[in-house]
Design goal:
Distance between the termini: 54 Å
Number of helices: 1
Structural class: alpha+beta
Order of helices and strands: EEEEEEEEEEH
Helix content: 10-25%
Number of strands: 10
């Protein structure tokens, strides 16, 4: 069975359609089932829960809008029922963590190109010469 929709981030309270789905299509997600209130086209978003006026709409795990009218579970998210909103952004408040990837399999590798005076690098000259000679013979 192909998947017709997805939740982009675990905090999202809307789902994204991966293909067109008809009104009354039964959505089953995380053990709960509900029907679509209208036709939903591929890439369109629809409500995973019921929304009241002013409720936050979350996608990518962050605030993207607020409901401007009540939205039923399974109803399309549109410019008629949602207005853009975003969380405040404050420099330095968000903590992120980056973990270096394991590069041990390249430990004994070496660079086969050349280093330029300006610090940039280039491919091996021999490759360019053979490419140029083949282009020149084609002319």
């Amino acid at each position: 069975m192909s998947k017709n929709f997805l939740q982009i981030h675990p905090k999202d309270n809307i789902l994204a359609a991966l293909q067109d789905m008809k009104k009354d299509y039964m959505v089953t997600f995380e053990g709960k089932s509900f029907s679509l209130k209208n036709n939903v086209t591929a890439k369109q978003k629809f409500a995973l829960q019921q929304f009241k006026v002013g409720d936050p709409i979350l996608m990518y795990g962050t605030l993207i809008g607020k409901a401007t009218k009540p939205i039923a579970q399974g109803e399309s998210i549109t410019i008629e029922n949602v207005v853009h909103a975003s969380s405040d952004y404050n420099v330095g408040e968000q903590q992120s963590h980056w973990e270096a990837p394991d590069i041990s399999k390249w430990k004994n590798s070496s660079f086969q190109g050349y280093h330029r005076a300006d610090g940039s690098v280039g491919p091996p000259t021999i490759g360019w010469l053979s490419l140029w000679s083949s282009v020149k013979t084609e002319m």
